[in-house]
Design brief:
4-stranded antiparallel β-sheet, extended
Length: 298
Amino acid sequence: TTVNMAHLFKVDRVRLLCSCGVLKPITAIYFCRHCLKLRCGNCVSHEVDTLFCPNCLENMPSTEARLKKNRCANCFDCPSCSHTLSTRATSIQAPSPDDPAKTVARKVYYLACTSCRWTSRDVGLKDQTVATGGWAEQDNEHYKFLQSLLEHYRSVAQQEKLDRERKRFSHRKSAYLSLTDKYSLPSLLGRKSLTPLSPYSPKGDSGQASEMTPSEAVSEVSGLPDNIFTDELVLSSVTNMVQRMASPEWQPEMTSDLYPLHKHILVKRSLRCRHCEHNLSKPEYNPSSIKFKIQLGA
């Protein structure tokens, strides 16, 4: 019985031959009823149906997800163990608004991890009076530089788009200019026809990309602090590579600098046959549902 149960979860023991010639387990093979052929993950096109948070199960439009960098604004992950943080409530003594000499109990909220016991108080985050968020975001010292890079590459992309438009309409412009020379139309009309067609340059600007100052490598680096050779090293206070790469913008070196991480959002995908473009798999729209509208498994 133990051997049979062990084989039950080994789906790779039996593989099916896809129409593209690749062997795949039955869990990764679909059957197209229109083409009457087997399809694997390489033979289908993936389409994103919905974006949602796996914790609060809230749907998110694609534009909002792009602005929030594909993260949920209300749910957080533990920066120490990547477990989902929960909101805890506690009472503190605060001065009364009517009489400052008296103290009253006030309910506040903080973030806590039920796995590694990490809390938002460990990094000095202030407790909130509401449980729906409002946590202070960590400032990025390179924010202005990154924004200037984004603006620069946007202007570069816009300049390339204008160049493609000029090449596309170059033959039409040349034919129009020949008519103005033939019939002696005012030269002002010809100059108006040469203004850019893009809405990003309404005043006839060239749309050239802004100049960026390139970064230069320094030959001298700052020295190590004097206490690095005398103070005792506590390895538990140093972050590992997983904790650092979870925050690529800051990459904290010490565990005292770990901040809560916004939770990544997930997607529900539809699979479509590349040959006949019929759906092979389509989940339901509701994030809490695990059922499929269409599921043509082999």
